């Protein structure tokens, strides 16, 4: 297997040096070149044809977003954004994912050398993930198909969704068509603290349902979607006849917090046949075992199919476990999950 060639675009000479050290320390990748701005990067891309590009958000001469938009239109390639953990940084990063970036890494606010080196393993994981990604094409984005809701669905019905790499856009595509009267949706997307609030706000502006970052102890209501906060596990819990949100700072599961398995396991216990579980695009196996638990509890379970995944990792692992009741293209998931809850049908294994 050939090595992953990486090109780093960052206006900081220190970041370029540290990224080179991190990448070159791995046996399966190497830094082919670095660039201080997008204009230099453009020529280096033509010359080296790198496997993956790492791209800073804020740079001189051309903004990272402007460059990304042109790149994805003229010469699509896997891009990992290097983002600042700020309100503006999170908004810009989410826009970059919308434009076609595969993933992002956050820059530490202080102690850049030590901070970046501590992130070394995570940076390399994201580069490997990007190298395997199926690139989304925003220009060919499918028009939103409104979901038909012919019968009233009770408040005891819930939908649980898990995703990782490529998940921000996949989740948007699943939520946008949902009608205001749809069942409550609980979502775990692998994302660090500081980004989930902006992610929820962006979705709330686009969707008919209310989308928000989940809060400890709040009641779970129909017509609402709840995003697990970065760095906290989210569970579904019972409070009398109602559902509520439980947030936990317990250790990571499958190396993630929030973890999809934590959400799915709680939904299996609390909702059983009244739930639908959906596992979307992502690297690794988080959510596969939890989806199986949901299926055993009588939930209908859906795995995104390979053709529509950015990274066909988590759904593939679930399918190998026989955890998916059905395997469905991303375009059809919204209607399938709502129709299944309206029909009241589920299966047991």
TrEMBL record:
| Subcellular location(s) per record | Cytoplasm
GO biological process terms, semicolon-separated: chemotaxis
Q: Please list the residue ranges annotated as the Response regulatory domain.
A: 5-122
Among SUPFAM superfamilies, the record links this protein to: CheY-like (SSF52172), Methylesterase CheB, C-terminal domain (SSF52738)
Instruction: Identify the catalytic residues.
Output: 164, 190, 286
Could you describe the post-translational modifications of this protein?
Phosphorylated by CheA. Phosphorylation of the N-terminal regulatory domain activates the methylesterase activity.
4-aspartylphosphate-modified residues are 56
What is this protein's name? Protein-glutamate methylesterase/protein-glutamine glutaminase
Domain spans labelled CheB-type methylesterase: 152-344
Pfam families per the record?
Answer: CheB_methylest, Response_reg
User: GO CC annotations?
Assistant: cytoplasm
Work out whether the entry's keyword set contains Manganese. no
**In Gene Ontology terms, what is one molecular function of this protein?**
phosphorelay response regulator activity
Catalytic reactions on record: L-glutaminyl-[protein] + H2O = L-glutamyl-[protein] + NH4(+); [protein]-L-glutamate 5-O-methyl ester + H2O = L-glutamyl-[protein] + methanol + H(+)
Tell me the protein family, please: Belongs to the CheB family.
Task: Write out the function statement from the record.
Answer: Involved in chemotaxis. Part of a chemotaxis signal transduction system that modulates chemotaxis in response to various stimuli. Catalyzes the demethylation of specific methylglutamate residues introduced into the chemoreceptors (methyl-accepting chemotaxis proteins or MCP) by CheR. Also mediates the irreversible deamidation of specific glutamine residues to glutamic acid.
Q: What is known of its domains?
A: Contains a C-terminal catalytic domain, and an N-terminal region which modulates catalytic activity.
Q: Which domain of life is it from?
A: Bacteria
